[in-house]
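OP here, attaching both records as promised.
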Amino acid sequence: MISTPEIAATWREQLLARRNELRGGSFRDAAVARCALVAVADDATSAADRGTVAELVAADPVLRNFPVDDSRALFEDNCNRLANDPVLDCAHVLRQIAKAVHKPAEADAVVRTGIPIGGAAGACGPAATEAVRDACRTLRLAPERFGL
């Protein structure tokens, strides 16, 4: 997964510049679901790691367009679903991500928002990278566009 600080900083600036365009519920649902997908990608993800990602979701300046409690509840719901029934509920989480598929700017922002969050939480192993690829495919975006 892309991990260079320069690229992450550039993406962050671009997202912050477009923050007011990213106010729709479909963007929120997709971005939070994408973070959850990466947070539980590794079966060994601890509760502390999941909590770190939850804090990063709550603190993210783009996702702060939405009530923090709502974003956190969505994140926890998606994580719980993935932990309880990974196969069935992965489909649910991917449907949440797919809410942004018809809005290219939002789809791109979903991936770009989640990469710094996942990277900051240490979620950059092979399973997390594959989870981001799944999100890209769901959003009909080329994973290579994001360095995957």
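Record two, same layout:
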Amino acid sequence: MGTSTEFIDIKRAKPSEKNPIDRVKNWKEYQKPFSEKKLKQQASRCMDCGTPFCQIGTIINSSTSGCPLYNLIPEWNSLVHQGNWYEAYQRLAKTNNFPEFTARACPAPCEGSCTAGLPSEAVTIKSIEKAIIDRAFSEGWVKPRKPLRRTGLKIAVIGSGPAGLTAADDLNQMGHSVTVFEREDRFGGLLMYGIPNMKIDKKHVQRRIELLQKEGIDFRANMHVGIDITIEELEASFDTVILCIGAEKPRELNIEGRHLKGVYPAMDYLTASTKSYLNNSEAKITAKDKRVIVIGGGDTGADCVATAIRQGCKSVVQFGKHGKLPSERQKNNPWPENPHIFSLDYAYEEAVNLFGEDPRQYFIQTKSFIGNEKGEVTRLKTISFASGNHEESSRYWDADLILIAIGFEGVNDKHFQEITKSQNRIATNNNSFQTNKEGIFAAGDARRGQSLIVWAIQEGKKAAIEIDNYLTRKTAVI
């Protein structure tokens, strides 16, 4: 980029963050932006390698490696280093419909496969992406793009998460008339209600929705397809329908005491919390003054930890069935696989600063929930396995609120009985995104299963192409 050894000579910098003790007092985003000088330095670390593994977008050993959107990362790194911010935005927007979302919510598998990570440390791709799109909005470069022509064809998009929004965006730009149906009172799907405000400020989601509306997309909230309107009514009114309803059916923990009050799926808790914040109302589920236990070790579990802290919990512990990750890549996890290494994410850093210790407990399996005479949970029983020998030991933990964050099983909607499903996912024809019902398509987690935001956006983009091809063939026959 500049000379040829910046990726070694310049050290990778981590974005600065607000003080953990201070930031838990509010719901604002916790990361601070880099200075422009620092951004140019960090962008110069890009090797501009002959084969940019950062954008390969594939699955290796059941984990995402590289960017599934095939973002032109070396190109916009170079442009940022040169100070050509507008051109960098143009390159970013060429492949990514919503960089303001991915730069905040994506775990950045592009960095895990960055070639600079072999001899040194990966480029801070995610931070540079965030800086580009935030600057583009602040400079007024992101403007409504109204299609030059309209085809006269109408498409219904069910669900306004990243897959639905992407499909709607691309189909609208192709000239089709798009209507998005959302069962919640606000648009954005998990971007709105499944990810806490400190990771994605909801003003960014609302800003993008308003932009899409100006571009001609019709949004209808509080419309649960199957209840408020039937799929048959949509088929009669639209030329095609695409299901982007997510994979929100929570994986259950069917053990003794599951029925007790105070035991909830994690997503119910996070949704209630965000609604409370946005509506300035009392949360239906709150951790205030409670002993909280989170079961499950993924990002959703971490978000539960951070949310419970902000609500004023008395204590918080997170259980994981697996052991603590190593501090460095292991031989069975080579580059360019996504590195499975230990990190102190934002929620755990906050817990350490507030309570003096990392809330994560390893090799823990929950066996039962125990309640009082009022039917309220008061504690739970676990067994733990000593690393290496699987020797069991049992323990009881006091708890007033238990959040189950062990993932999702698949589609949670029973209103599409005529559409074939496989392994709790909507089945589609090979490479077409079309279901067994002609004219009805599916994309995102509903089709793929629980995955990353970048895969959802890729699904939306590919589905839009297939729908456009379908409509072209259909109208040509007519």
